From TrEMBL:
Record keywords: Coiled coil, DNA recombination, Membrane, Transmembrane, Transmembrane helix
InterPro entries: DNA_recombination_RmuC
Pfam (any one): RmuC
Official protein name in the record: DNA recombination protein RmuC homolog
Organism per entry: Ruegeria conchae
Physiological role: Involved in DNA recombination.
Record keyword Membrane present: yes
PANTHER family the UniProt entry points to: DNA RECOMBINATION PROTEIN RMUC
KW Transmembrane (keyword) present: yes
Length: 409
């Protein structure tokens, strides 16, 4: 029996057996741990030796680190010197580029100014020439219109003149010359001098008293002066029926002969108009003919011979003058249209040149703007180069440095 804490237990009691087993186990473990500690002490001796060896290696690494620090200092000094050289080189090149750019900008500005001045000078010369030519054409046109108006005033003054037979001479040749002179006076006062010809010779050899150069149609028309004074005097001087009958027959035959002569001599196909004028220098003869001999007048119409007196000749010539004026106005209108066409072409050419000039100005402005942009970019790049931190390049420059604890392969 065993007593524990006042309690008695038998030796074969399970509690005693378990407790004894635990105590034995603890003792066994203590014995084993003691042996293990002895074994660990024996094993710690090589570890201590390894630790001492490792301390030596750490000391060697410290020495290598000092050497590396010296090498890095050398590399840093070399880097600083190289950086200074790079900065000096960049500044030198930047100054050169800026100088070249300034020179080019100044040269381009001078060229643009010269080109602009030349273009402005050419444009002024072209405008001055065109305006001068237009002013000259308008001045000539005004002068011609003034001359036409003056001639029209003269015709208006002459239209009221009435000629009589008071100063007619009895001599036939003198009478014919008088008729021609009167016709010449009327025509020269009614028409421009270059629109008629006196004593014009036709292709058949006949000479007309006056040839009016009318435009086609009707074409040139002949005026021939006839003065049947003897037949008219016999007609108005007859005292009986026999003398009256004879005078009427003589007057009719004389006028008919004049009409036939004019129709045969002065109406030529392809050369003159299809009619001619017979000028009677007496209003009385003209009135007597139309009053008492209408068949003769109708016969003259059929032969395309138009009988006129000084008054009706003036009216007829005034009509011809209107035709000539219209023709010349058409000619002048053609010239004016031609001048206007040339002026229109000059204006179009001027507009095209102004457009080209505007395009050149736009291109020059665009080039200057692009040059300014390039200069600004170059300035910004130069500023960035000037402010650049070269320390950022250190990792790239030291890519070949061997990390600590590793050997170079």
């Amino acid at each position: 029996m065993i007593e524990i804490a006042g309690t008695q237990y038998a030796l074969n009691d399970p509690v005693i057996l378990i407790t004894g087993g635990v105590v034995a186990l603890i003792l066994l473990l203590l014995f084993l741990s003691l042996r293990a500690s002895q074994r660990s002490a024996r094993m710690a001796e090589p570890l201590a030796r390894q630790m001492a060896h490792l301390g030596q290696h750490v000391q060697q690494l410290g020495q290598g680190q000092e050497q590396l620090r010296g090498g890095l200092q050398h590399v840093s000094d070399t880097q600083a010197n190289a950086q200074v050289q790079v900065i000096q080189t960049v500044e030198s090149r930047l100054s050169s580029v800026q100088q070249q750019m300034n020179d080019r900008l100044a040269d381009n500005a001078m060229k643009s100014a010269r080109a602009l001045a030349e273009m402005q000078e050419r444009m002024k010369e072209s405008l001055h020439g065109s305006s001068k030519q237009t002013a000259t054409s308008l001045t000539q046109l005004q002068e011609r219109l003034a001359a036409i108006d003056k001639a029209q005033d003269n015709i208006t003054k002459l239209s009221g003149d009435v000629l009589s037979l008071q100063d007619i001479l009895s001599n036939k040749q003198t009478r014919g010359a008088f008729g021609e002179i009167q016709l010449n006076d009327i025509v020269s006062k009614a028409l421009p001098s270059d629109s008629f010809q006196l004593q014009a010779t036709l292709s058949n050899g006949r000479r007309a008293d006056c040839l009016i150069n009318l435009p086609n149609p009707p074409g040139p028309i002949v005026i021939d002066s006839k003065f049947p004074l003897e037949a008219y005097e016999a007609l108005i001087g007859s005292t009986n029926d026999m003398e009256l009958k004879a005078a009427v027959q003589m007057f009719r035959s004389t006028v008919r002969k004049h009409i036939n002569d004019i129709a045969e001599k002065y109406i030529l196909d392809g050369e003159t108009a299809d009619g001619a004028l017979m000028f009677l220098p007496s209003e009385a003869v003209y009135a007597e003919l139309h009053a008492k001999f209408p068949e003769i007048v109708q016969e003259s119409f059929s032969k395309r011979v138009w009988i006129v007196s000084p008054t009706t000749c003036m009216a007829t010539l005034n009509t011809m003058r209107a035709i000539l004026k219209d023709a010349r106005m058409r000619e002048q209108a053609g010239a004016i249209r031609k001048e206007l066409g040339m002026l229109h072409k000059d204006v179009d050419r001027l507009g095209e040149r102004v457009s080209n000039l505007d395009r050149h100005f736009g291109q020059a402005a665009k080039d200057i703007s692009e040059i300014k942009i390039s200069a600004e970019k170059a300035g910004r790049r130069a500023q960035r180069l000037d402010n650049f931190d070269f320390e950022e390049l250190a990792p790239d420059d030291h890519t070949n440095v061997v990390p600590l604890g590793k050997t170079e392969s």
